[in-house]
Specification:
There is one protein chain. The protein has 1 helix and 10 strands, in the order αββββββββββ. By secondary structure, it is mostly beta strands. It has one domain: Jelly Rolls. Strand 2 and strand 3 form a beta hairpin. 29% of the residues are buried.
């Protein structure tokens, strides 16, 4: 009986650990193509708004309060030796999304150059309203080599329901 109890305790601990890994690495960056620097990146909750629901490789937010800030964030290290353009994209599906500023429902980047200067607010927006999966994509040509990128899938100061999947960031070859 004692061995059975110990086995059950170990099994529960393992299941909790697996559940925590699923919550911190939702798989929305699972677009597994060569060159995608965020495919293995851990995305974390951003803001103090509503918790995302992770399911089947997507993260979904449901907001009924346009004063809340929520989304997902990750940091990508590039350490470019010379300035090279990057391309970034993601997909989103929306239901009754109301947004006043395009950058608040977008794939959004804050970029740090190798000389430690920064550029904020490079983004590609998603359409508001209701729509099935749509892809937002942008190519950005930096003035200087990029050291790192703070990437966000934003759903802030909005109402409605939005899901995100297939985030992609790569240097243009």
């Amino acid at each position: 009986m004692k061995k059975l109890f110990m086995f059950a305790a170990v099994l529960c601990t393992c299941l909790i650990a697996v559940g925590q890994e699923t919550a911190t690495k939702p798989g929305i960056v699972g677009l597994d193509v060569e060159g995608n620097v965020v495919r293995e990146t851990v995305w974390r909750r951003y803001g103090k708004g509503f918790e995302p629901i992770f399911k089947d490789g997507t993260a979904t937010f449901n907001s009924d309060d346009a004063k809340k800030v929520q989304g997902l964030a990750t940091t990508i290290t590039l350490n470019q030796s010379e300035a090279k353009p990057i391309i970034f994209s993601a997909e989103s599906k929306a239901e009754n999304v109301s947004v006043k500023s395009k950058g608040n429902y977008s794939f959004y980047l804050d970029i740090t150059y190798t000389d430690k200067t920064k550029i904020f607010g490079v983004f590609t927006p998603f359409k508001s309203g209701s729509h099935d999966w749509e892809k937002a994509e942008m190519t950005f040509t930096p003035e200087k080599p990029i050291k790192s990128i703070r990437a966000f899938l934003l759903f802030r100061y909005v109402t409605g329901i939005a899901s995100f999947r297939n985030a992609f960031v790569a240097e243009v070859k």
